[in-house]
């Protein structure tokens, strides 16, 4: 089958969940194309080269400059005036049309019939597909991940997805929570089905717990508000006060880097908190393997932005690592407190520190059982091979979407 993946940016190193889906479809023998709104910069996942993905992608390259964007839009209207005006019909499609994104994507998708199926990641891209309603293929799917149901909706309003909900596109939220939210916004429950993201278990060997005098805590992710990395730093301070010998390693970068470094200095933790920046996949794997506990103190940002179910957590559980995270978004669908990890409330660094202490103080037999449960959870519910096969069967119409 010929499959088009529509993504916001490519090749985004932080979006391994999309990459795993694309490479999984290639492994199944599908003919893959990728349409990306923007070109990502920075380090590239090795699978991008391994699967020659840069030769399978087209970039819309939507200008960030408003004037440049307007000029590009006007050129398309001049070429196809009737279609151009239809794609600016606010009454029919809502105020999203004034982002000009449907208009700018049109030249790349004016004939969708050359594909057997379309898979859009993020609601905004699915919305574009629904607005480009002419010549739509029979099987189209839109994945919802997080900000597309929180920050994006807060910006444009609940009615923003009305054209998508009225279309025949199947909605695939990655968690039960997002399914409930989509239905609350007006989606048809019969066309809204949870489909988790997943990880490749063959890439992760099961870890063994190593007793050590010094505890290594690890956070992996963008340094953004919703990741709650300040909570991890505050929790470290509490642990040190309780007498634990510990350090916190932070892999990633982002807009809060300087603020978090200043916080570290104010708490006099410079010797205990290491900002490693972005690392390549092999280096990240080594860091995770060396860590005693993986932390994910996620929380809702002030602008409403939320996590989905973080893939970094799936990867940690796939290794059977001890994890401490929060009762945030879809995370409790992956981590059950005391069964395969530990859960704390959002924004509570004291309880978060107590959960870390609980993990450290567990008898070895209980640690081993919890670590076994962690890998089993991923094997049964977040296994990318099984999930990709299910998605492929849905695309082919062999199982109900």
Account of the 3D structure:
This protein has 401 residues and is of the alpha/beta class. It is built from 17 helices and 12 strands. The protein has helices spanning 16-27, 46-50, 66-79, 81-86, 90-93, 101-109, 123-131, 151-156, 162-166, 176-185, 229-241, 257-266, 281-290, 311-318, 349-361, 364-381, 384-396, and strands spanning 2-10, 31-39, 57-59, 117-121, 139-144, 170-173, 215-220, 246-251, 273-277, 293-296, 322-326, 342-344. The protein has a 6-stranded parallel sheet. A 6-stranded parallel sheet has the order 9-8-7-10-11-12, with helices on both faces. Helix 1 (16-27) packs across helix 17 (384-396), helix 11 (229-241) packs across helix 15 and helix 14 packs across helix 16. The chain is globular, with a radius of gyration of 22 Å.
């Amino acid at each position: 089958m010929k499959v088009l993946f529509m993504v916001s940016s490519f090749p985004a190193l932080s979006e391994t969940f999309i990459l795993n889906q694309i490479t999984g479809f290639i492994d199944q023998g599908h003919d893959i194309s990728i349409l990306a709104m923007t070109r990502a910069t920075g380090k590239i996942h090795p699978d991008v080269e391994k699967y020659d993905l840069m030769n399978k992608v087209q970039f819309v390259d939507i200008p960030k400059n408003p004037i440049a964007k307007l000029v590009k839009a006007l050129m398309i209207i001049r070429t196809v005036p009737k279609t151009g005006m239809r794609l600016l019909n606010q009454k029919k499609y809502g105020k999203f049309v004034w982002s000009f994104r449907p208009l700018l994507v049109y030249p790349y998708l004016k004939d969708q019939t050359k594909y057997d199926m379309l898979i859009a990641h993020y609601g905004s891209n699915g919305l574009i597909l629904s607005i480009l309603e002419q010549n739509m293929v029979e099987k189209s799917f839109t994945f919802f991940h997080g900000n597309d149901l929180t920050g994006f909706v807060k910006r444009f309003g609940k009615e923003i997805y009305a054209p998508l909900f009225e279309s025949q596109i199947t909605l695939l939220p990655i968690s039960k929570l997002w399914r409930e939210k989509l239905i609350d916004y007006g989606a048809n429950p019969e066309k809204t089905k949870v489909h988790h993201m997943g990880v490749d278990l063959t890439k992760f060997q099961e870890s063994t717990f190593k007793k050590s005098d010094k505890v290594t805590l690890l956070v992996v992710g963008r340094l953004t508000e919703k990741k709650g990395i300040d909570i991890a730093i505050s929790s470290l301070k509490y642990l040190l006060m309780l007498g634990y010998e510990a350090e916190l390693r932070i892999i990633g970068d982002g807009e809060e880097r300087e603020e978090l470094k200043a916080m570290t200095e104010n708490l006099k933790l410079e010797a205990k908190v290491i900002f490693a920046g972005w690392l390549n996949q092999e280096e990240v794997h080594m860091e995770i393997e060396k860590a005693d506990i993986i932390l994910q103190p996620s929380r809702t940002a002030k602008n409403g932005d939320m996590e989905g179910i973080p893939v970094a957590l799936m990867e940690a559980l796939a290794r059977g690592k001890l994890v401490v995270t929060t009762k945030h978004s879809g995370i409790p669908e992956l981590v059950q407190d005391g069964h395969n990890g530990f859960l704390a409330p959002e924004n509570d660094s004291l309880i978060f520190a107590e959960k870390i202490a609980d993990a450290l103080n567990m008898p070895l037999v209980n640690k081993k059982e919890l670590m076994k449960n962690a890998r089993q959870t991923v094997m049964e519910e977040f296994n990318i091979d099984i999930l990709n096969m299910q998605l492929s069967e849905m695309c082919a119409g062999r199982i109900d979407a």
